[in-house]
Amino acid sequence: MSSLLETLATLPGASYTHPISTSIPSSSKLNPYLPLPSTSTLFTDSSFLHTVPANTSSSVVHVLGSESVISSRDKDSLVLISRTPQEAYDHSVLALKVAKSGISTFHFVGSAALSGSPTILPNVEEWLESSTPALNGHSSDPDAEERLNSAYEAAALSLLKATRRAQRPFVTHDSNPKPSRAILNFLPYTPELSGEQLIDISLASPLPRDKVRHAVKGFSEIIVLESGSGKYGPAWASVVDALEGSDYPIRSILAGSNPDIASALSSSAPVSRTGSPLPSPSIPKTSITIPSAESKYTDLLASSPSPLEILNDPASLSASESTSPLYAFGKAVAIRREREQLVELAKSVLKAPNTRTEVHEALSQWLLVRDEAASSQAGEKAEKALGEGSSADEKSLLELGRKGHWAKKNLWIVISNSWAQDLASSGLHHALASGLDINLLVYETASSPFSPLAPPQPSRERKKDLALYALNMGDVYTSSVAVYADFAGVINAMREAEAYPGPGLVLAYLPWGDKEDGQSVGQGEVAGPLERLRETKRAVSGGWWPMFRWNPAAQDGKQFILDSPAIKTALSQFLDRQSHLSQLTRASPAIDASVTSSKGTELVAARKEKAKRAYDALLNSLDGPGLLVLYASDGGTAEKVSKRLVSRAKMRGVNATLQVFDGIAANAVEALGAEKNAVFITAVAGQGESPLNGRELTKKLGTLSADSIGESWKDLKVSVFGMGDSNYWPRKEDYIYYNKPAKDLFPRLLSLGASELAPLGLGDDQDPDGYMTAYKPWEASLWRALGVDAVEVVEAQEEVVANEHIKIASDYLRGTILEGLADQSTGAIGPSDAQLTKFHGTYMQDDRDIRESLTAQGLEPAYSFMIRCRMPGGVCTPEQWLAMDRIADEHGNSTFKLTTRQTFQFHGIIKKHLKPAMQAINKSLLDTIAACGDVNRNVQCTVNPALSHIHQTVYDFSKNMSEYLLPKTSAYHEIWLDKKQVAGGEVADLEPLYGPTYLPRKFKMAVAVPPDNGVDVFTNDVGFIAIVENDKVVGYNVTVGGGMGVTHSNKKTYPRLGDLIGFVLPEDAIKAAESIMIVQRDNGNRQDRKNARLKYTIDRMTLPIFKKEVEAVFGKSFQPVRPFEFTTNIDNYGWVQGRDGNWHFTMFIENGRVEDSSRNQFKSGLREIATVHKGQFRLTANQHLILANVTPEDKPEIERLLKKWGLDNLNHSGLRLSSSACVAFPTCGLAMAESERYLPLLVDKVEKLLEDEGMRSDSIVMRMTGCPNGCARPWNAEIAFVGKAPGSYLMMLGGGHHGERLSKPWKSSVTEPEILALLKPLFKQWIAERNDGEPFGDWVIRAGIIKATTHGTNFWAETDAS
């Protein structure tokens, strides 16, 4: 049988427990002082009982192991006492029953009742929901006491009928012979008293007057036995009240711990006390749990440069103190009052005639700086001068000073629903209205209305509305901040609030801040930094959580600062429109005649196009069958197939139209009912889900039934073709996700009344021709079903891919970019221009964190642009660094990225800021041309600080090669720098190297200086390995054919490392690079961009033939390869001195993100360093930074600044120092999973596995990317993860520690728990079996965990993963 507590825990309803020593199964933890959720049960004990608020909202409070019964502060409640397990169980279910009537119950359970097993009530839920029997004799308008008694009696009667156990308000223990006195026992246990008439009270409040009167009738004396140590007990008072008007003498015995009740009974005193006093309730500091998520803000509070005290911080409270904000306000008043007394006493001592000179000087100095940072030091001097004090004022002054009042503390009160809820906002109101210098930090933890996880939130619980309340006061510093949206803004707000000489309110957004990481937040999502970041972005970008600061003390015009970027942009656009409208109010507006003529021409053209479409539709509808083609596609392949199907259908005389799934979602029944034939083509997204643009229709079809559709689809015929990858889900249990949208959709349509047009088709990327293997017979069956299979159609030859057309038609990369930038109706540019802008160094992106919420609101995506600089060799000046810092603040998202190609990358630049940002970059003497696109991109070069003279040689080579291979078009300067195109521009823009179509695909080059392979030279299309002899670069070994991009599960694509083809002299190196690029230009695959890189060209031509073609263009043969050796491809952190005597410091910047965050202050620190540094900033290919050429005399100052900002911290694990990640979510449009935001969190957990084995310092190259394009070079890492779906990664092992070998796919799809479970035994085995210094990547091959990848073409061989 179950114990009492196990039984009580199974009763219906939500249950909570205070942090008591007794464990309660299946109960949620509740911090002391917090209100109990309505209609719930709380388990507590005597220590925590006083923290329960007065209003317990129809709930049940079990006080376990009670030694005393305390009267409830909630007058509308019952107080029950249980002394046996059965009584405790019956009282518990009775309390749940009366809670249905809106009545709460305090149930005191004695220690003896906790041991034993009660008989339970079967079907307790049914009994609780049953009606309560009506009782006779009760008033129709009862007072509170009568209502409580009535509810108790009705529930007791109902329970009697259900259990045959009577529930009585008290139990009489008769004694024979009958004694002269009766003892009313209010203790939670039954004392052993022989020869006494003992009445155990079960219903202590309200005491049933009539029943008590009847029970004591005939006795000459009444004794009330209860616990306590005061003047008299509350139970005695209630008995006196119940027996009012009677002549009984009523004595009181107050029992403490270990009472001698028999002796007390023998006393004749009206009030007797026995036993030692009961201990006062004590709340352990450790009992209050603060959610770890709140540390994001409290850590920033603690970073205050001034003395600070969080008045309700549980860690600093004594046992008798409360976390209540109202209690904390009382403390604040006392602290401010005592400091005012200190100031007045200091002034009084100064005025005293007998004040000593040294005291006068010290106190005068302290008064001058009493509100500044120096006040503490001045106070110590004053205290030393005062000695022990020579007057009463001096002694009082010393007493207050020693309490910590010399320094003015910044006082903070935290209001958190998790541990410091402000009931009725009384603490907040008093603090803001007081005018005192007190600051409040208030957390809002609710999700925004735009969140797919958002529950409805009552308006009274919205913390964001407190800002309006504070702003209306006028003299309260008010700010609304969000640490996951603007880290620097939070710091600014906190420091401004502390500096303001009055009350301050900081509203802090922390979605799901009341939940620990890993706890569910609904719909399969769990709380964690990434989910909080996404939710913050939804709230801020949607305008639900505005970010602002209101400082009444600031100068006029600067009191209100709006920090919300979305609202600022909207406001700016509104003001721009207002300005334009003002211009249009002129009586005779001056409109250029060319405007009206051009618009008229456009209108005529539009009418002609509309007429042509109508004519084509008419011809198609004369005798051809109709066909609606619907598609759902994330990557674009399903859309491309659908468009091609429509084109082929029209060639066969079929009246075909194209629509996206969600385009008909709103009126799906009517839209499909109007068609005769419909085809659905869908890809797969995520965990077997429909693509994003097909989810609304999928949901809609799920809500329909055959009855609701009726006869609407009786003539509709349908077919479905799905596009998936059977190897994407290697585990048996996950195979159901293969082509799941198509497999679910087809039977669903048939069940709703449609009939089959053609069988279900399932395309599989694993088939010999990919999805086309299944698509071709499916399309043939479709033509047969439509009766057009006999129509002879000459299929047009497959056209060159769209990108080639775009380049040809672009007029040397001009396109319509200027017109797209001028279009203010959208934040985007056209698709063709989006391809062309890559050549100019910018990508169009959108914020994928909020894409769905914006779509749900009917808004376009939050478009922005990424800009990548061209900076050969990764070297810039301090002035250029400062310019990049400003550009990030003024035009971007206040951060910038150091990329794996040694350059700067900016994100979050809206279209309006794109051109100004480009101009600012060029003004700093950098540019962005050819940083992306089908051209030679940023040329990398090894950064070896110890060999400064060698670095200068290879840097100059890298820079000259980059300049030589630049596109010659003047379009870049026309579009971004407002240069005018000269007459005959078509001649000026002749591209002698690239031609009008440029290269088939991107082209990357790097220069390495052995033994350092930090640039991963073999991963580049072309690599130059410097050969140094006699301290001089004598030439370069040349590699060709490296490349990282892959398509998941498409084994025709693979990563590849470069092959050595020979050696060239320095003067021939640039010509060699040009020759290789020309051969790729003329032989690369322009039909299929997935097979267009140089690596595929070489493997198609074979390396000897390719080399021969290059030598023909080069005009000479390559010399034999010279010997070299690489020993590392990770950065050498810390200080190193070059041969010229200058110093170089390599710092760790995790994943290259330069920002201010709770982890690091890179942005502010490097900004200050750049103002004094006289050397260079050098970016490494591992996304880190070198402060180069620091002179010996400047080194101490640089060291001081590094220490000040914590940038000299290199105490990281070897794993973290060797890790790298691409950007991925939220900005990269290709990302399938998290990377930069997630890898640091994964490293936290993986490095713990290594630390457990004593391997913290061992380096393992671990890299992660969000997609298979490989920007962070995962394909040759020792451990690598490539995103396949949110939270799911392809896992690879066995890359070379020095970048010399590709990794091998090991597991097709792993999640975080699987990653940790797989790595733990591997690490243990590696440590036990490794040879001396053997890298992890070498060991996994030697141990037979995976096979070595010897060439890109066997990357997919001998592995089941894909």
From TrEMBL:
Which Gene3D superfamilies does this UniProt record tie to the protein? 3.40.50.360, 3.40.50.970, 3.90.480.20, Sulfite Reductase Hemoprotein, domain 1 (3.30.413.10), Sulfite Reductase Hemoprotein,Domain 2 (3.90.480.10)
Enumerate the cofactors the protein uses.
Answer: [4Fe-4S] cluster; siroheme
Which residues lie in coiled coils? none
Tell me the pathway. Answer: Sulfur metabolism; hydrogen sulfide biosynthesis; hydrogen sulfide from sulfite (NADPH route): step 1/1
Entry superkingdom: Eukaryota
GO molecular function list: 4 iron, 4 sulfur cluster binding; FMN binding; heme binding; metal ion binding; NADP binding; sulfite reductase (ferredoxin) activity; sulfite reductase (NADPH) activity
Show which residues constitute the signal peptide.
none
Reported EC number(s) for this entry are: 1.8.1.2
What the entry lists under SUPFAM superfamilies is as follows: Flavoproteins, Nitrite and sulphite reductase 4Fe-4S domain-like, Nitrite/Sulfite reductase N-terminal domain-like, Thiamin diphosphate-binding fold (THDP-binding)
Q: Name one GO biological process term.
A: sulfate assimilation
Disordered: annotated segments: 266-285
Q: Which UniProt keywords apply?
A: 4Fe-4S, Amino-acid biosynthesis, Cysteine biosynthesis, Heme, Iron, Iron-sulfur, Metal-binding, NADP, Oxidoreductase
One Pfam family this chain carries?
A: NIR_SIR_ferr
State the InterPro entries in the record. CysI, Flavdoxin-like, Flavodoxin/NO_synth, Flavoprotein-like_sf, NiRdtase/SiRdtase_haem-b_fer, Nit/Sulf_reduc_fer-like_dom_sf, NO2/SO3_Rdtase_4Fe4S_dom, NO2/SO3_Rdtase_4Fe4S_prot
Cellular component, GO, one term:
sulfite reductase complex (NADPH)
User: Which EC class is the enzyme in?
Assistant: oxidoreductase
Ranges of residues in domain Flavodoxin-like: 627-783
Q: Which reaction does it catalyse?
A: hydrogen sulfide + 3 NADP(+) + 3 H2O = sulfite + 3 NADPH + 4 H(+)
State the similarity comment.
Belongs to the nitrite and sulfite reductase 4Fe-4S domain family.
Q: Kindly provide the name given to this protein in its UniProt entry.
A: assimilatory sulfite reductase (NADPH)
